[in-house]
Design brief:
By secondary structure, the protein is mainly α. The protein is built from 15 helices and no strands. Helix 6 crosses helix 9.
Length: 309
């Protein structure tokens, strides 16, 4: 029996050897640039030295946890941790449903040309860098000469400090994030909607179902597995933080809410040369992200979904 299985496997490999050959390059990429660098994780537990390899460095104090203790006793890190959780939670709460709603609305459009035009318009912000978006935000939301505030002033109201006060800055930050990514993320949901059997819609139309009933009883259940998978992946990044977005939009007036973990790592690691400290912070982020990922996947399976594995 084993000989038969081995011969089948060998014949399969011989038949599709080109596919296995094509897999060598991405496999080599992940080994060289993803797995081999994992050896440097131990810098978080050792006293960094630029002239020594990670294997030769001496262990840090407190059984190697010196830099984790330093991080959690650092006020700037605690502020960065709070801001990261807050901004990512608001992104998840307000930004995650946005592409789902947009995909459903686009799917319900009757005029195909207008639908394609709308899709193109909402996709375009994804291709703009955050440096460009921050420049646009400054031109639109500046307190004195921003286009939005000029219009508000002409209507007889006082200027709104979109970029200068922490609360308004957070709202602007979330709004710009949704505007930049919402259209692009609808691609996945539109593809999921396209996979729903059209006979279900025809049968519901015969039964006299309205559009809202079709969306609630057919469209949403049809894309629920996709929603669950993307939600799990989003929860895995709840403690992660992009660098470009907060760094491009921040200013000295809103540092109390704009400084996230990635900016803390940049200031203390690249500029401050505290590599062991920032490696410990990065390892903490990764471990918490994995815990959230496994927890969300377990909850998805308990609710009857497949999860991501």
């Amino acid at each position: 029996m084993e000989i038969t299985n081995k011969s089948k496997s060998l014949s399969y490999i011989k038949r599709y050897w080109i596919l296995y050959l094509m897999m060598l390059l991405p496999l080599a990429f992940f080994i060289i640039f993803r797995y081999i660098p994992m050896g440097y994780i131990q810098i978080a537990f050792k006293n960094y030295s630029i002239v020594k390899s990670p294997w030769e460095m001496g262990w840090a104090a407190n059984h190697g946890f010196e830099y984790f203790i330093k991080a959690f006793s650092n006020r700037d890190f605690l502020y960065a941790l709070r801001n990261t959780i807050l901004l990512n939670f608001l992104d998840l709460l307000l930004g995650f449903p946005a592409p789902i709603i947009l995909a459903i609305l686009l799917n319900e459009l009757a005029f195909k040309r207008f639908k394609k035009f709308t899709q193109t318009v909402v996709y375009m912000p994804h291709f703009l860098s955050w440096v460009i978006i921050s420049g646009l935000a400054l031109q639109l939301f500046a307190p004195t000469n921003g286009l939005v505030n000029i219009m508000i002033n002409k209507m007889g109201f006082a200027s709104i400090p979109f970029l200068n006060e922490p609360a308004y800055w957070v709202v602007t930050y979330i709004f710009l994030g949704i505007w930049q990514s919402c259209g692009w993320n609808t691609i996945i949901y539109l593809a999921a909607i396209a996979g729903i059997n059209p006979e279900l819609y025809e049968a519901s139309a015969v039964d006299g179902a309205s559009r809202l009933r079709k969306i609630w009883h057919i469209t949403l259940p049809g894309i629920r597995p996709t929603i669950i998978v993307l939600l799990i992946l989003s929860l895995g990044h709840i403690l992660g933080s992009d660098f470009e977005r907060p760094y491009a939009l921040r200013n000295t007036l809103v540092t109390e809410v704009s400084d996230v973990i990635s900016i803390f790592v940049y200031n203390n690691g690249i500029r401050g040369l505290q590599f062991s400290l920032t490696t410990a912070v990065g390892l903490f982020q990764s471990v918490v992200g994995v815990i959230f990922l496994f927890g969300a996947n377990a909850l998805a399976k308990k609710s009857g979904e497949r999860g991501i594995w």
